[in-house]
Write a structure and sequence with these properties.
- The protein is of the alpha/beta class.
- An 8-stranded parallel beta barrel has the order 1-2-3-4-5-7-10-11, surrounded by 4 helices. A 3-stranded mixed β-sheet has the order 6-8-9, covered by helices on one side. Strands 12-13 form a two-stranded antiparallel sheet.
- Helix 8 runs antiparallel to helix 9.
- The chain is globular.
- The two termini are 15 Å apart.
- The structure holds the ligand N=[N+]=NCCCCNC(=O)[C@@H]1[C@H]2[C@H](O)[C@@H](O)[C@H](O)[C@@H](CO)[C@@H]12.
- The site of ligand 8P5 has 15 residues, from loops.
Length: 448
């Protein structure tokens, strides 16, 4: 007898995007530049010199995109707010037209019975704040608290689920350690400072919310479960370091008020000691965590790898996506049960899960066949259900992404959308995976 995959009553089905990846018009209506607008216009930083000047033109087409969400039966939509649209200098003067855009977006979602879930920071720090040191300046926590307060006062109530940060690990690892992402630094001493100030900013935002908000606030992290490549002590230790570095570096401070002990092994003299007051600010209670899951990592010791001394081992028996990520749905179940066991079964939303497979630049007679993505979604949604059967407190699932969009420094070369975007005409075409997902939503999982 095969198992039923019907999801619990109240489980929320959605899709996710991020401002700089879809909106376009980054400087419209008084908006200030973000570090991503600046990075994307820096020669050599972006594949094919792509940038977010147009992207999916969502800033102008959001009503059409909400109509597509409605046609798919989505109950919720996770988006991010561009900080520098609202505060062009990152602090101080509010740009009402920037706020007005997000108010129109939220009100149109609500008119279509789609619950908005807002991420306050999805990597696009105001350039004016980067000029003042950005995530390296301890004042950034207060700047983020000020911005958060502006948004809570204007939209809390219509938005009932807020995320402070999206993936602080990627911001730090990509933006400050390895330099592949904005602001493009490569500095072992900066990375732990940026991480810590991101977490302090999270804490200031939660503090502001507790004073004025009436609903839920949390943080979104990417989790990539690590599996030792062998039983050797050095591979096990490499796995432990990799897990501490990516998966515990942010959740341990938020839930336990302390960093993983491996952080000093990894960063050595570059790992500072922080005051307890900071850890108290960081570890205030939150209402949920967003988990972004894409893949797993089979980890071996690698003396030549910097600074982790750990490297992935390819798994040729499995499919890999266009971004080079192994398709491993069991890793999602393992991730969710790990979070349950380690952090006391907090409410979790899968705030991103999806894959880039090759899709053509144009639809063929109004259709885009993406069987690999249909299979990916089926396998991973079943994995979520298995975690719920194991007692995990999962509130909902947001597929990454609603639309093909700007994949950061990879430009438009990678398509994650369940809806195809023809970047020459801005025509949207729901892919086969969108129709598949709509059927899952309509049957609440029964058709999985
Ligand atoms: N190696 N490796 N392992 C996986 C680590 C994944 C780190 N990148 C993400 O999670 C980003 C997240 C981001 O929110 C979104 O804005 C991005 O478009 C997606 C797709 O890239 C994902």
């Amino acid at each position: 007898m095969s198992k039923s995959y019907v999801f619990p009553e109240g489980f929320v089905w959605g899709a996710a995007t991020a401002a700089y990846q879809i909106e376009g018009s980054p400087l419209a209506d008084g908006a200030g530049p973000s570090i991503w607008q600046r990075f994307a216009h820096t020669p050599g930083r972006m594949l094919n010199d792509d940038n977010g000047d147009i992207a999916c033109d969502h800033y102008n087409r959001f009503r059409d995109d909400i109509a597509i969400m409605k046609s798919l039966g989505l109950q919720s939509y996770r988006f991010s707010i561009s900080w520098s649209r609202v505060l062009p200098e990152g602090k101080g003067r509010v740009n009402q037209k920037g706020l007005d855009f997000y108010e129109r977006l939220v009100d149109t979602l609500l008119e279509n019975d789609i619950a908005p879930v807002a991420t306050l920071f999805h990597w696009d720090l105001p350039a004016a704040l980067d000029d003042r040191g950005g995530w390296l300046n301890p004042d950034v926590a207060d700047w983020f608290g000020e911005y958060s307060e502006v948004m809570f006062k204007r939209l809390d109530g219509r938005i009932k689920r807020w995320a402070t940060l999206n993936e602080p690990w990627v911001v730090t690892d990509g933006g400050y350690l390895h330099g592949a992402l904005a602001p493009g630094h490569r500095n072992r001493f900066e990375a732990p400072i940026a991480s810590h100030h991101l977490l302090r900013a999270h804490g200031k935002s939660v503090q502001a919310y507790r004073a004025i908000g009436q609903h839920d606030i949390g943080i979104v992290v990417n989790i990539e479960p690590k599996y030792a490549a062998s039983d050797s002590a050095e591979d096990q230790a490499a796995r432990d370091r990799a897990e501490a570095y990516m998966n515990r570096q942010y959740l341990d401070p938020v839930f336990f008020g302390k960093y993983p002990e491996q952080m000093r092994d990894i960063f050595g003299e570059a790992w500072p000691e922080w005051p307890q007051a900071d850890m108290d600010l960081i570890s205030q209670p939150i209402d949920f965590i967003g988990v972004n899951y894409y893949t797993r990592n089979v980890t071996r010791h690698d003396e030549s790898s910097w600074p982790l001394k750990a490297s992935p081992v390819r798994q040729p028996q499995h499919t890999y996506t266009e971004t080079g990520w192994e398709v491993y749905p069991q890793g999602l179940t393992d991730t969710l049960t790990w979070v349950k066991q380690r952090y006391g079964n907090p409410q979790v939303f899968i705030t991103e899960n999806g894959a880039a497979f090759f899709d053509p630049p144009k639809a063929e007679r109004g259709r885009v066949r993406d069987p690999l993505r249909v299979s990916y979604l089926r396998q991973h949604l079943r994995a979520v259900h298995d975690a719920i059967d194991a007692g995990c407190n999962i509130g909902g699932y947001f597929v990454w992404s609603l639309l093909d969009n700007l994949e950061w420094s990879l430009g438009y070369s990678k398509r994650f959308g369940i809806v195809h975007v023809d970047y020459q005409t801005q025509t949207r075409t729901p892919k086969d995976s969108a129709r598949y997902y709509a059927g899952i939503v309509a049957s609440h999982g029964a058709r999985l």
